[in-house]
Amino acid sequence: MTQQDRERIAAGLADGLSYAEIARRLDRPTSTITREIGRNGGPGGYRPQQAHQATIQRARRGTPAHPRAGGPPGGTMEEELVEVAVRTGLPRMSARVHFDLLLSEDGRRTAAELTHRLKISPASVSVAVNFLVEQGFVRRERDPQRRRDIYVVDDDAWYHSIVTGRRQTLDTVQATMAAAETYGLDSPVGQRLAKTAAFLERVSLDMIESADRWRALLT
């Protein structure tokens, strides 16, 4: 990788692009970009000139890259999981918080622990966690002795997420059907909206039936 490539990586990070989009613009595999950023300070500490010099020095010594200081074990793997989640539509900060919880020993973190581990602001943690709670990925518990919140991801998290998603889909179904009736069920627009509502409702029901049937796998 050239220094110009690394400059473009830094510019992409500054613009808030995903690793996948940076990789596409450089015509490189996403895993290459993930490793490059992970071994050179991470998304918040990536510096193209230092990264280029460090790579040259490693090549001269013939030694592998050292893991990122202060990062969690298996940082590159975690970053790759985050990228997959971002590509499916999860906000990046929420994805980082989610996988930090998933990969923790007991699936529990306080806001202070998340702030320290991910090196982000308390406000960023709050926004990310609120989104995850709303989507059913995480639940909030209260520690009465220390008067602080503890964020938990458990075995049922994916089930609760599907249930939450179903409720949101049914809200869309109701709104779409109401719009269809407003336009008139005999009109082309009304028929199109009614078909959309029926499709979403049927898929939503199938999803929850499947989730109920296979929920035991989580426990």
Explain what this protein looks like in three dimensions.
- Strand 2 and strand 3 form a beta hairpin.
- This protein is mostly helical and 219 residues long.
- The chain contains eleven helices and three strands; from the N terminus they run αααααααβααββαα.
- It has a three-stranded antiparallel β-sheet.
- It has helices at residues 3-14, 19-26, 30-38, 42-45, 48-61, 75-87, 92-102, 111-118, 122-134, 157-183, 188-214; strands spanning 108-110, 139-143, 148-152.
Short structural summary:
This protein is mainly alpha-helical.
Q: Give the low-confidence spans.
A: 63-75
Q: What's the tally of helices?
A: 11
Structural class of the secondary structure composition? mainly alpha
From N to C, what is the helix and strand string? HHHHHHHEHHEEHH
Work out the number of β strands: 3
Instruction: Return Rg in Å.
Output: 22 Å
